[in-house]
Amino acid sequence: xxxxxGKFTPEGARSAPTSGLVAPRGRRRRPRPRALAVTLRxxxxxxxxxxxxxxxxxxxxxxxxxxxxAQVAQAVGELWGNGQLTDALSVSLTRAGLGLFFGATTxxxxxxxxxxxxxxxxxxxxxxxxxxxxxxxxxxxxxxVWFGITETAKxxxxxxxxxxxxxxxxSGGVRSTDRKLVEAMxxxxxxxxxxxxxxxxxxxxxxxxxxxxxxxxxxxxALIAAEEINSTEGIGYLMAQAQNYSRxxxxxxxxxxxxxxxxxxxxxxxxxxxxxxPWRQVVQGASR
Length: 288
Fold this sequence. Notes:
Elements: H1 11-15, H2 34-57, H3 69-81, H4 84-116, H5 118-132, H6 140-147, H7 151-175, H8 179-187, H9 192-203, H10 205-226, H11 235-244, H12 248-276, H13 278-286
Helix pairs in contact: 3-12, 4-5, 4-7, 4-10, 4-11, 6-7, 7-10, 8-9, 10-12, 11-12, 12-13
């Protein structure tokens, strides 16, 4: 039909207002204050700390079971004052860092090889999958036979534990790379290493960071197991000495340190995600 001005107007356009239809309105999202997010994240730990202090004050939690937060704080001051805490932290961080470096690097290289080349997958993947199913704790006696009670055994155990998560993530991320894009780069004359460096690794970056997060978490878990191998220094050595003398305050300090190391590892990966993948933060913020 035509209007008074001579322009054609569809029949449905004139009947839409009378049928109860309304124009769609976009949902406006207000940005969440940073201070509010930080406050909400601290509520849980503060609640646990408050419950711990209350149980200790009322006698529901005795010192022989677990020391109070005040006694744990005193133990931190004591260990920090005599230098035992700083020395133990330095040794444990060195062990975890070296094991993580060798393990994650090995897992990354093997994951790229098996994910990018068919020959690598056929030769290596089945053997690696068999080794991945073996718990790394079962390797402790074998490593003690091979390397003795040395730092090599501890670093090797952490390296084995951290290599498999990175391998699985890297292999899966590389396999998910767009093959058409790879073929296009080959048609432009790029070699294999150039394609891996410029196309495959950037495309697999989310998977690589997920694997790194798992590897860093496992490095702390493997560190606890590694420092049980007759250590004479490190956080595990402090725990063994505290167990011998029934020092629950020192035991609590060591447990909290292990937990803080895991939290710091997760924070490092989150920081890397913000730096290397800034677009991901924008997408996540828009979907909340």
